[in-house]
Each structure stands twice: as structure tokens, then as C-alpha cells.
Amino acid sequence: MTCRSRERVARILAHKEADRVPFDTNGFMCGEVRALLADMGLGQEMQEYYVAGDFKYLEFQLKPDRGALRSYLPDLPAGAEVSAWGVGKLPLKSADGYSAGNRLFHPLADVDTVEELERFPFPDVTAPECHRHLPEAARSARRDEFTVVGQMSQTTLETAYEMRGMERLFVDFHERPDYVKALFGKIAERRRFQARCFAEAGVDVLRIGDDIATQRALLVSPETYRRWIKPFHADAVAAARQVNPRVDVLYHSDGALTALLPDLLDAGVTAINPVQPEAMPPWQIKQAFGDRLTLWGCCGSQSVYAFGSKDAVLDDLRMLMRTVAPGGGFVLQFYNMLLTDRVMDNLRCFFEAFWEVAQYR
User: Fold this and answer.
1) Percent of residues, the chain, with pLDDT higher than 90
2) Fewer beta carbons within 10 Å, N or C terminal of the chain?
3) CA distances from 344 to 165, 213, 323 (A)
4) What is the mean pLDDT of residues 236-262?
5) Which of 198, 229, 197, 201 is nearest to 213 (CA)?
6) Average pLDDT in the 107-119 region?
7) 311-337: string of b/e by CB count within 10 Å (b at 16+)?
């Protein structure tokens, strides 16, 4: 039995049915889930497939210049991490000891002018050490039958509001439009280079995205998206497609993204993730956009798996096969999953059933 198949994923992304629904473990697989799989007695090949899935994600190897960034993060605690964009992150835990996101430290919080912005140490994505590994990594992944994804999420808006602070940036749209234009331009210049590099390396999918919605509504109006953000998304897609016109483009945003789907299609997006059932019912999105968009995710991490029974997990999986899988255009993925005892029990049920239930018949 060969679990992983590039042909399978290619058919699904082309909106054709294959032998089965592909599985993406990005953002989900961790030590606790690996231990669960090891305890299930699934057999080595099946266990390895569930750990790795059908996709291999590649990234630029960017390192922060902590010395140059020190003056921009005066209150950074000793244990915090710093991204190449200068964003400080301190992991937080819930009262029960589970991961609860990060406290962020914004390096542009007190950088209020375009002149000051020009002096900020943005990452040099063109340095060979950041991207020279990509072609061989892509070749190696293809040899192992992975579908290769170039990871470039937090493409524009999310990078900007993590650097600046969300409230400050949203005020800047009105009070400092030249500042926003300059900041987005700095980020976009680097994203265009990265998109070209990924396409030249031979990725099958370019993953872009900005968290731009809550679970009830968009963070910005469609008009603001079209004026300020969409052109930069479209530019990144165009940069990749100048190299490979057939590259698929996966857009990630948590929350209720439905109102922006026509604009994302217009910008060149071919797949969306994670399609949170709690915010945008996948079967409704399939009916409206399923011939043009692949739905990538669709698992109720905050509902079925968090609070449901094992029967509910099986019912949900069968429902997805009945309403979202037909005609292709469906990749199953868990995202933003808080692991509890109930969730672990439900994941065991999922892993026991997925290989059989997720077949096209």
C-alpha cells in the first residue's frame, strides 16, 4: 500500500475525484498526537502517513538580527522569541496548562514616520543562505511523493499588524496613509522575491494569507481590502505565476472569510484554508464556490472535536464526504486545535476511521 500520492493531490486540486481525500498535517502534528498514533498499533506505513500527510511545507530560513532589533523591543522578556520581522513572541498558557497563543511585542509600535520606517532593519530575504536550500528540498519532497507547498503566510496585513500593533495600524489607515503605503511596500517587495523563489524551486502550491477575519465578520471592510491589501496579494501571486503559470495558490485566514472569496478568486487564489465550520459552513462554500476553490481544512476543531462524541466525529466525517468531497477540491486538515482529553479521544476515533471513510467510491 502506498499511502502518499502526488497524482492524488493533483487530481483533487484540479477538481477531479481521486482514490481518496488528501490529508494535511501542517499546524497540527505535535508530540502528543504522535504519541497517540504510536499507541494505536496502526502499522508503520499508516502511522508515518498520518504523521506526515500528503504535503511538505518549505520555508525561507530567516534569522532575526537581535542586535539591530534590540532598540525596537525595549520591554522584551528574556524568554521571548523574536521573528525575522522583529516581532517578539512570548508563549502563553491557559489555566489548565494548554497553549493559549502568544503575547506579542511590536517593533514598530513607536515608529511613527516614513523616515523612521526607512531605518528599520527589515529582513534581507535575498541573501543566498535564506533560500538556496529550496530547490533540493523540493526535489527531495517530490521523490517521496509529497505535494510541495511554499509557506508564505502572513503575507502583508498580518505581518504589518504584528510589527505595528493591530489598533495602531488600523488607525494608520486613516491618519497615516503614506506610512501604511510605505510599510506594505517594504513587506511586499520581499514577498514578491519569495514567491518567485518558491516557484523557481518547483513548489506545487504557494501558501499566502493574512488573518483578516473574526469568527463573525471581517476585520476590515471589503472596500479597505480592495484598496489596501488585495493589490499586494495579487502581486505575490503574479510573481509566482510569471515563473509557473500553473502553480496553485492557497490562502489562509481563520474566521468568517466568505465575503472576500470573490476578491481572493480575482487575485488568483485557488484554495482557502482552514474553512472553519464554526464561521463558514463548508457545504455552503462548496455549493457557491466549489468549482473554483479547493476547500482545505473543514474540521470542527472548536465544535465537533472539542465537545462532540465519537459518533459525532464519524457523522461529521461522513457529512464532509457527502457534501464537500464530491467532484474533488477538498483537502482535510485540522487547524487551531486545543488538545484536551476529549479531543484526544475524538482524534483516536478519527484516525481509526479516516482511511476507510475518506475514500471515493
Assistant:
1) 93
2) C
3) 35, 28, 26
4) 97
5) 229
6) 97
7) ebbbebbebbbebbbeebbbbbbbbeb
Q: Specify the residue for cell string 472553519.
A: 276
> Would the pTM of this model clear 0.90, i.e. be above it?
yes
Question: How many angstroms from the chain centroid is the CA of residue 32?
Answer: 21
Is the per-residue pLDDT at 139 higher than 70?
yes
296 DSSP β-pair partners: 331
Contact between 224 and 215 (Cβ < 8 Å): no
The amino acid at 359: Q
Beta-ladder partners of 55 = 147
| Residues 281-318 pLDDT 10s | 999 999 999 999 999 999 999 999 999 999 999 999 99
Q: Are 352 and 310 in contact (CB under 8 A)?
A: no
3-class secondary structure for the chain? CCCCCHHHHHHHHCCCCCCECCEECCCCCCHHHHHHHHCCCCCHHHHHHHHHCCEEEECCCCCCCHHHHHHHCCCCCCCCEECCCCCEEEEEECCCCCEEEEEEECCCCCCCCHHHHHCCCCCCCCCHHHHCCHHHHHHHHHHCCCEEEEECCCCCHHHHHHHHCHHHHHHHHHHCHHHHHHHHHHHHHHHHHHHHHHHHHCCCEEEEECCCECCCCECCCHHHHHHHHHHHHHHHHHHHHHHCCCCEEEEECCCCCHHHHHHHHHHCCCEEECCCCCCCCHHHHHHHHCCCCEEEEECCCCCHHHHCCHHHHHHHHHHHHHHCCCCCCEEEECCCCCCCHHHHHHHHHHHHHHHHHCECC
Q: Are 198 and 233 in contact (CB under 8 A)?
A: no
